[in-house]
Amino acid sequence: MTLLQCRDLRYSPGSAEVLCGVSFAIDQGQRVGLVGTNGCGKSSLLRMLGGELSPDAGAVVRRRGLTVALVSQFLPGEVRDRTVQQAVQDAAHEAHQADELLTRLDFTQAQRAQRAGSLSGGEVNRMLLARAVAADPDLILLDEPTNHLDVDAVVAFQHFVMEYVRKAFVLVSHDRALLDALTERTVFLRGGRAHTFELSYSGARHELLQAEAAALQRRQAQQKEIDRVRASMKRLKHWAHVYDNQKLARKARSMGKRVERMEDAQQQAPWADRRRLAAAQGDVRASRLLDLEDTRVVAPDGTPLFHVQGFYLRRGDRVALLGQNGSGKSTLLKRLCDVATCDDLRDGGVRFNPQVRLGYYDQELSTLNPGLSLLRTLVACSDQPTDRLRSKLSTAGFPPRAHERKVETLSGGEKSRLLFLVLELTRPNLLLLDEPTNHIDVEGREALEGELLSGSLALLFVSHDRRFTQSVANRFVCVRGGKLEEVSSLDAYFDTLQAGHGTGAIADASPQPTTATHLSNDDDVLARIVELEAKLQADLARKTKHQKPNLQAAWRTEIAELYERLA
């Protein structure tokens, strides 16, 4: 059954047309991924699907009685002064739903009593998700719901959605692994149009690139024929003029009209993002660039975070720094950046090689001077001619009219692109990157991956994007148990998280088994057996990639214990 249809949606919030003929449908129970570059209109399209925004042309046709819940990137004003408990309770149909969902999403009693307006970004995301699920809508719209969540919490979010979201949903995300795990249909927004595939992200992206390659070949063949006919037309016009021949002139005019018809019917050029996102690499001869020995990382207020017994970074090492939010990953990168600016390149147990030229990308993008223009920002870090710097800005997606804009007026994505331009111009040989993908879309992430993998640049980075981390890193270290330790692979780290369904901001998406000793009589034992067997059968009925082997084993163990008790 079709829930809604988008019919030729068009939307122009400014001078440029963002959506120029978007059409697709969403059926009951479908799990849809909506993918596109920053600024392509994804959030606006979600608001149109939810009825909060009207298109300039076209229509969103909804099934009669359709209920929709939008999980936006920002806290709605009407719930800002409500407590977390009240905000979720308002959306729930039954009183116990709010308590159950908040428990599943690991909200403490103290957090439930907080004003929604005082929550952190990750807490807001979780609360809005709880409100949406509690309302039991026919369709849930999720606008980048894992922003501000660490890797552990993203894993737990994935399990929560698998376990509790049974209705159709549209997920906007730049996390490719999350899209592959949760969606079965993908809609790409490219060049203002929608391209729909009945596949999760990776399969859909492969099909899209193949379709675009075929379209480009057709366009090139058509252009070759257009050029041939146009050249013939020009020769006829010349001969008609030289020999004053009206017959040749009429034939030339006819061929000109033919060229116009061919151009009108020509295959549309495939969309291409021509912004450049590069991290240039400086040369270095030293093999060992950074050493940490017996180093203690502490918060700005002096609170101990973790201890580094021994760590080194060599030329060509690309090290992913893993751990929960608040564990001290960003604090370590900031301290390393401070030490690198010292005259002797050392502080306590931290030692940099004198050949190091450090580049630092902070997740708050605070290293950019907000009062400078884009052009002055590049001039301040480079001695290249102004014309060349303007060309670099244009290549990075900043048109000439934007070159004199102040940094403080830029969006997060624009600041991110500018900071990478600064890093390119300073040519570091060691990069510290703190959440470099936060403001970058899928296309930009893939471009950055290619740049970071293209040479011997040393890299220590923090990222919550699993696909990016897996693609870029060749070593993995983890902040765990108050110390920094090396792990063999990202899979090994995730195996630990999967076993516990995440230990971060979101709690285990499924209830932990209740042991037989917690049940007071045989009726309770039988009821528990029925409950566990139903969960087991439901999980076995899922696709293999969505099943939870660890929980299945726990459920089977408890069922055996319960039957033994009855015996």
Major beta-sheet overview: 6 strands, mixed
CATH superfamily placement of the largest domain? P-loop containing nucleotide triphosphate hydrolases
| Percent of residues in beta strands | 15-25%
Strand order of the largest sheet: 5-6-7-3-8-9
Looking at the chains present, what oligomeric state does this protein adopt? single chain
What structural keywords apply?
6-stranded mixed β-sheet; Rossmann fold; alpha/beta; 4 domains
Structure in words:
About 40% of the residues lie in helices and about 20% in strands. The chain is α/β, with parallel strands linked by helices. It folds into four domains: about 1-205, Rossmann fold (3-Layer(aba) Sandwich); about 205-265; about 290-495, 3-Layer(aba) Sandwich (Rossmann fold), CATH 3.40.50; about 515-565. Strand 6 (about 140-145), helix 6 and strand 7 (about 170) form a beta-alpha-beta unit. Mean pLDDT is about 85; it is low at about 500-520.
Task: Set down the secondary structure blueprint.
Layout: E1 2-11, E2 19-27, E3 31-36, H1 42-49, E4 57-62, E5 68-71, H2 84-91, H3 95-104, H4 109-112, H5 121-134, E6 139-143, H6 151-164, E7 168-172, H7 176-182, E8 185-190, E9 193-197, H8 201-243, H9 246-264, E10 288-298, E11 304-314, E12 318-322, H10 329-340, E13 346-347, E14 350-352, E15 358-361, H11 374-381, H12 386-395, H13 412-426, E16 430-434, H14 442-452, E17 458-462, H15 466-472, E18 475-480, E19 483-487, H16 490-500, H17 522-540, H18 549-566
Parallel strand pairs: 3-7, 3-8, 5-6, 6-7, 12-17, 12-18, 15-16, 16-17
Antiparallel strand pairs: 1-2, 1-4, 8-9, 10-11, 10-14, 13-14, 18-19
